[in-house]
Design goal:
The chain starts with 8 loop residues before the first helix and ends with a helix. Strands 2-1-5-4-3 form a five-stranded antiparallel sheet, with helices on both faces. It has a five-stranded mixed sheet with strand order 7-9-10-12-11, with helices on one face. It folds into four domains: 9-115; 119-219, Beta-Lactamase (2-Layer Sandwich); 224-297; 306-459, Heat Shock Protein 90 (2-Layer Sandwich). It has helices at residues 9-36, 57-118, 138-144, 148-151, 166-178, 221-266, 268-271, 275-297, 311-328, 347-364, 395-398, 416-426, 450-459, and strands spanning 122-127, 133-136, 180-189, 195-207, 210-219, 306-309, 332-337, 343-346, 370-378, 381-388, 430-436, 439-447. It contains 13 helices and twelve strands. A hairpin with a 2-residue loop joins strand 9 (370-378) and strand 10. The protein is rod-shaped, with a radius of gyration of 45 Å. The longest helix is centred in the first third of the chain and has 62 residues, at 57-118. It is α+β, with helices and mostly antiparallel strands and 460 residues long. Bound molecules: adenosine-5'-triphosphate and magnesium ion. Residues 356, 360-361, 364, 388, 390, 393, 397, 401, 406-409, 412-418, 440 line the site of adenosine-5'-triphosphate. The site of adenosine-5'-triphosphate has 21 residues, from helix 10 and helix 12. Its EC number is 2.7.13.3.
């Protein structure tokens, strides 16, 4: 009875009325019978001359039997009525209790739904046996770009959500064995193909008798990226400090050796036969010297000569040189320059960034390839982007770019990007890389308030 479904109060009322009606009918039947037989006292002896059955003793006995049956029916009716009354009262009270508990269940469901949907973290409810979505919250829709109705009833695999699809089975096994998991890092793909690093937990819950898993995920893509950049910059700063420490010490003896080599070169009588070797040694020393010069730029923590400049004017000045260099390799450089605000820039350093990125782009492309330099505003940043049509950067290389001396080229020093990152940092700009088999794009993002930030840096 306790777990019986709630009976509507109207139904109980109808039951009660039926009960009353039954009792009334029986009572009325009894009265009628008594009247027909001239009896007003149910249960007293039956004698009725006016009645068609009055002279028949058998009929008289039947009357008595009928009367007894009728009396019995009235009692049954009465008892049913009383029982019905108590049953009605009982059902009514039970109903009240159930309605109350159902109401509080409904309220708690509504509370859960509000928390579920308003949660800034991604939340989903999936079936435990096949991982089909039962519900997703607003953050899921916003971050992944799929509507609720679109995903409900489907699995993450149907949407190619997993970057690493076997993880779904691993998580399901973990949930099956332990009932929950916490702080797992997963990479999922959004509707637009962007990859998001998410950290989250899952717990098995019962939803209307079906085993489900409630998943909460936090988007840590940006903090992961930042972590990587900080690590990179830390390495860069360390290398910069080392460079500052030993750069000058190495340069001085090199200068001395170079001076003597030049001197010997002039001594025709004894050294003429080694003229070529002397030349080579001097060239190698010059190369070492230029590497040290580049290396030393890593040690800087401020731009040297900053002034209010426009990125477009720097690009326009350097463009013919870049185009001429590219043309020698049958490659092309274009510039698409939007109107951008002036920024506090060190012109030489910005040129250096452009030169290094263009050099890398040219190295990555085969003949006929194009490089596009763009400047544009994407609030709150002014962007300088350099896009090439090269082979792209492999994931294992992408991890390491910007680390001083990391190169995949035979003749590279591996300082080009390290210098770019250093220069960007000194201008309070960040560097983003997007790469794929059709090319690579480097985005240098200068904040609008680069001016203020640089001034603050200088003061401190
Ligand atoms: N646009 C690009 N396309 C493909 N790979 C690139 C690109 N830019 C950089 N790389 C990869 O990153 C590595 C590091 O680049 P970086 O500019 O720091 O050094 P490098 O070009 O090898 O040497 P250098 O010091 O002469 O610049 C390169 O060796 C190359 O493998
Ligand atoms: Mg390079």
């Amino acid at each position: 009875m306790l777990c019986c479904p709630i009976i509507k109060n109207k139904t109980i009322f109808v039951l009660f009325l039926c009960n009353l009606l039954l009792f009334s009918i029986l009572y009325y039947a009894h009265i009628c019978y008594a009247e027909v037989n001239g009896k007003d006292q149910p249960g007293s002896p039956v004698v009725n001359q006016g009645n068609i059955f009055s002279n028949d003793q058998t009929v008289h006995t039947q009357y008595s039997n009928f009367y007894e049956i009728n009396k019995g029916l009235v009692w049954v009716g009465l008892l049913t009525s009383v029982a019905g009354f108590f049953l009605t009262v009982f059902l009514f009270r039970k109903n009240k209790e159930l309605t109350k508990s159902q109401l509080s269940l409904k309220q708690s469901e509504q509370r859960f739904a509000r928390v579920f949907h308003a949660n800034p973290n991604i939340q989903t409810i999936n079936r435990l046996d096949d991982f089909r979505f039962i519900d997703v919250n607003d953050s899921f829709e916003k971050i992944f770009g799929y509507g609720r109705e679109e995903v409900i009833g489907y699995t993450p695999l149907d949407f190619n959500l997993w970057v690493n699809p076997q993880l779904q089975q691993e998580l399901l096994t973990l949930l099956g064995n332990e009932g929950h998991y916490t702080d797992k890092e997963v990479i999922l793909r959004t509707n637009s193909g962007e990859e998001k690093v998410l950290q989250g937990s899952g717990v098995v819950v019962d939803v209307t008798g079906v085993s489900c898993v409630l998943i909460s995920l936090r988007d840590i893509t940006e903090s992961k990226q930042m972590e990587k950049e900080i690590k990179k910059l830390d390495r860069l700063n360390l290398v910069g400090q080392v460079a500052a420490g030993i750069g000058h010490e190495i340069r001085n003896p090199l200068t001395t050796v170079r001076g003597f080599l030049q001197l010997f070169q002039t001594k025709k009588e004894s050294c003429d036969i080694y003229k070529e070797q002397f030349m080579l040694m001097i060239e190698e020393l010059d190369r070492a010297n230029s590497i040290i010069t580049e290396f030393l730029t890593l040690a800087r923590n401020k731009p040297e000569r900053v002034e209010m400049k426009n990125l477009n004017s720097i690009v326009t000045k350097i463009l013919p040189l870049l185009q001429a260099q590219a043309l020698k390799e049958e490659k092309y450089v274009y510039a698409v320059l939007d109107k951008v605000p002036d920024l506090l820039l060190d012109e030489n350093e910005i040129r250096q960034i452009i030169l290094n990125l263009i050099r890398n782009g040219l190295d990555a492309m085969s003949r006929g390839g194009n490089i596009t330099i763009r400047t544009y505003i994407q609030e709150p940043h002014t962007i300088l982007s350099i896009r090439d049509e090269g082979e792209g950067i492999k994931p294992e290389v992408l991890e390491k770019i910007g680390t001083p001396f990391y190169t995949t080229k035979d003749s590279g020093t591996g300082l080009g990007l390290a210098i770019c990152y250093g220069i960007a940092e000194r201008h309070n700009a960040s560097v983003d890389v997007k790469t794929g088999p059709n090319g690579t794009i480097f985005l240098i993002k200068f904040p609008f308030d680069n001016q203020n930030q640089l001034c603050n840096t200088k003061v401190s």
